[in-house]
Specification:
The chain is mainly alpha-helical. The chain has 14 helices and two strands. The chain has a single domain, classed as Growth Hormone, Chain: A. 62% of the residues lie in helices and 2% in strands. It has a two-stranded antiparallel sheet with strand order 1-2. Helix 1 packs across helix 6, helix 5 runs antiparallel to helix 14 and helix 6 runs antiparallel to helix 13. It is a multi-pass membrane protein. This is Battenin.
Length: 442
Amino acid sequence: MEPGSSDQSLSGLEGEDSPALPPSTNIRWRNLSGFWLLGLCNNFAYVVMLSAAHDILSQQGGLDTNETSRVPPTTHTSGNSSNISRYDCNAISTGAVLLADILPTLAIKLSAPFYIHRLPYGPRVALCILCAWGSFLLVAFSTTVGMSIGGVILASISSGLGEISFLALTAFYTSEVVSWWSSGTGAAGLLGALSYLGLTQAGLSPRHTLLLMLCMPLAMLLSYYFLLVPPVSLPQWSCSDGTIKRDPLSSVHQPLIGGPPAKLGGRRTELTWQDKWRIAKSLLKYLVPLAVVYFAEYFINQGLFELLYFRNSVLTHAQQYRWYQMLYQAGVFVSRSSLRCIRIHHIWVLALLQCLNMVSLLVAVYFMFLPSIYLAFALVLYEGLLGGAGYVNTFHNITQESLPEEREFAMATGCVFDTLGISLAGAAAFPVHNYFCSLPVT
């Protein structure tokens, strides 16, 4: 994925008498910055909901206030007995917010690769924007956990539909937009977690913090409809008629690596179910390790962060949770933006390292042997670096190895597996939360 890849000529294509003009510098940077902003806006609501998970579950009916004092240890009921837990627990695991934030996304991603290409991009993006707006409003004004979970579900629909749409959209542009999209999603994690942490730390209530974030769906609208320069072949407001029109300003159909160039004229190849199954199987060497990476890191985030509580810290429990989320997202942002510096082909190495990190923090929660919260901060930052590297290198490898006519489906299929890993982590967080919170003070 070289910086100059978008300036390659299309000369030599079958049926062409003269070389195509390369995209202008202005159009190139509009598209690159557009994908960066789309990545930022698409993941923003999803990240904020996870950062607010502790507040959503512990301050219902009081999101218009900000916690400033420590919370005493929770009385946890198990069976017919009641005891004071050694951990400071909410009644419900923050895994509940994770599942509400990811299961709708998983349902969309599992089904969408087989029909989403028949839906125009314009209405898809409009739906993403409306769901993002609705999520912030519903959670901000909720009075029950159920209402908040409904808002989280809307954020999940927006993020899931957006990710599968925008990753597929990269097939219509030059290959370098993938790294810019990935960097934007990493920035969403950092900016979302940091803005929630900073505004609440400054004294703003969670409710007013969420209302301020209504500007992000507006930024998505402006980025997609006004900043990006769509190629002629893009099915914007109507379903594609099966033909690809020549766009002299786009080299999207030129192979990234060796092999004959795809034709820009004629009918578009329609993938059969056998083709789709073949493509999915060929990607498993990247996607299974990616799912493991995401299972381990989100098990840490939503299963262990809440339990990794240092009572001797100047930070309250809610503040510690927000700091964990922010540092994790900082690590994700750095590694998702690192593709020009380092590229990793063997994703299984990242999966192994993340699993070791998960086991280390699980043992640390059980035995409570970490001497300082700053050591926990370092481990959380390292976790984010591994997770972001797994994401960006997986999709870079898919881009490099997919045939041009198969790339749109391959990218859409690839983003299913990280969501699958996150969903399994959310389910695993419940029994772990209940087990630890049932342990009495020793």
